[in-house]
Each structure stands twice: as C-alpha cells, then as structure tokens.
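Z., the sequence and structure:
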Amino acid sequence: MTHFDYIIIGAGAAGLMLADAMTSDDFFKDKSILLVDKDSKQTNDRTWCFWEKDKGKYEALVHKKWNHIYFGGRRFSKRFAIEPYTYKMIRGIDFYQALFQRMESYPNVVFKQAEVTDVKDNGTGVTVTTSNEKLTAEKVFNSIFSYDMATHQDNYPVLQQHFLGWFVKTRKPIFDPNQATYMDFSVPQKGNTRFMYVLPTSENEALIEYTLFSEHLLPKPAYEKAISTYLEKELGCSEYEIVETEMGSIPMTCYDFREHHSKNVRFIGTAGGWAKPSTGYTFASTSKKVPVLIDHIKTGQPLHELNFKNRFRYYDLLLLDVLHQDNSIGHHVFETLFKNRRPQLIFKFLDESTSFWEELNYIWGCPKIPFTKALLKRLF
C-alpha cells in the first residue's frame, strides 16, 4: 500500500484550499500529500459567491463583482449600495484550474482520480480504500458529506438550502450588470421559504437560481418551471438560451459534526459543518477555517480536539428553529431584517465580526415574536 503523510479526500473548495495552504507553508514542504476525488474537476459545476471589503486571497479568480444588491420582499423592496463591501462570484472551473496549476509546481503533492469507499482510523494511522487500491496516511481530511451525518439526531433542525440555477443568455438586454438580486421573494412561497437569486454578468447574461430553505427537495421540473415563469412574468423575457445549469443542496444546521471526527481523521467543508448554518454560504467560511486548521495540524494534537464553535452558532440556531417551526414565514423574517437594518450590518453579522452591541442591534431588527418563542423554547 502507498503511504502518505496527509490524504485530502475531495477536490472541492475545502480540499483545494487546504492543499493550497499546505503547499504555501514550509512546515509541509517535506510532507507527502495526496488529493483524491472521483471527479476530474474539468467542468464548471458550481459557482461560489461571497462579500468582501477589500481584495482577498482569491481576487484574481473573481469572475464578476457587484457594488449593489437588490432585495425584493412582499411589501418592502429596495436596491442597496453595499460599499465598502463588494459582492463577488468565482466560477468553479476557474478555481479548479488555478489551484491545480499551483500544485503542479510542488512534487510532494499528488492527485488521484478515484472514488473513496472507506476510511478507517486505527488509532496510529488511517487506511483509505478507493475503487482502485488501498492507501495509508498519518492524517486524513475528508470532505465527503452525507445528510445522514446530521439527520440521525433531533436536537438540532436540519434544513437544506437547495437550488437549481440556469446560466441564461437573452436576446434583449434585461439585466442590470451592476446589481445582484440577493433575494427576490416575489415568487409563490407555497408554505416554504422560496426566492430567486439573480447574478447578471452582462445586460443579457445572468445566473438565475430558484432557491429554497426547507427540509425537502423538489422534483427537478418544479425548479425549472419556477425559473421559466420568473423569466417570463417578472423579467418579461420569453426568448433566451440556457447556456449552463447547476443544481445543489447545502445543509443548514447547527448540529456539531465533531462526533464524526477522530484522532487522525477530520471532516472538512460541508462535511465538517463549515457551511454557515443560517445562510448556507461556504466559500468565505472555509477560507477562514483553513488557516486555523493548518495551525492545529502543526501542533501535532489530535484532529478531533479542534473546536470551531462560537456564540454565532447560537444566533444561527435561533433562525433555524424559527424556520423549522414555521417554514412559511421566512420571507417575513428577511423582509423585516432588510427593512430595519442596512446590508452592511447584515454582512458584518454574517461574517461573525460584529461586537456584542452590534449583535443586539441586528437581532432587534428581526421579528420579535417568533425569535422570542424560539429562544424561550431553547432555554426551557
């Protein structure tokens, strides 16, 4: 069996960021690192979006950025300038190509395309079984996620941010390329939290995603019907070409994934609970957690001892409790928040960089009754 110091399972955002961080740190220059994924990562299978105040580490890979966002509610709608923040998009294919190219210059990093079928920590090392062979490592970082990891318990609600997106090209110019539609709740809610998310890259090109925060997925035709209806009725567009599609589901839960970690195996990315529980945003959260994980690895301490939990997890839990108790009021929650608070404070809060007094101000901008009920239920 081939042996490595570190094996990273999954070449998505978390796996590639971790591999990139290792190659950038002299501590790992003599360590053998294997990155394994069942996919070759040669297609544009997803996009990541996030907000930043300045130019970040991956600025060169940003495909499009916006200085304004639009929030569309049932009773309140507004276009916001978000300075000093900028809303940014990175395409999956650009990210994969750039990070794989970086790693090509490091002979201690190897990529294998294979499906991982089993991972076992024997206490002194780890055996990884793939569709082709068995491998061993000192430490393994696993980004393979299954909803079973979180749904086996009932202490924490588990919702999904599930979506289908079309990259469309229209005959006529119908989009404002300087404005991203952050949430548009004009679509029928049907007892759920449902909205459209629109990211224009030009006047006649955009990614349009039909997104839900709910427990269960929809049949694929339901997403497609919602997007085509939105294009025709809300945007007045009946002539368009679907250039690319993407579909996904991101867990929204405050369940502590730490019980799945072991001394030598650490789950990362979505599988490690790195998606922001209240929003599903993962890219920015992952970029902040990777350096902390790197520092922990260098201490030599067991991987399961690293704890990312903080007070913001309790704030996230209250929102998830509210949406789990009554999924139909999501539009009211977000509409009230955007009506009462500036997006700059919302972004700062979601970045987990607010002071306690700013957090109280944020919370006071939310609907009082459902959050008070959720808080009392958690306390008692």
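The longest helix spans residues 283-299. The radius of gyration is 21 Å.

Let me know what you think.
H.
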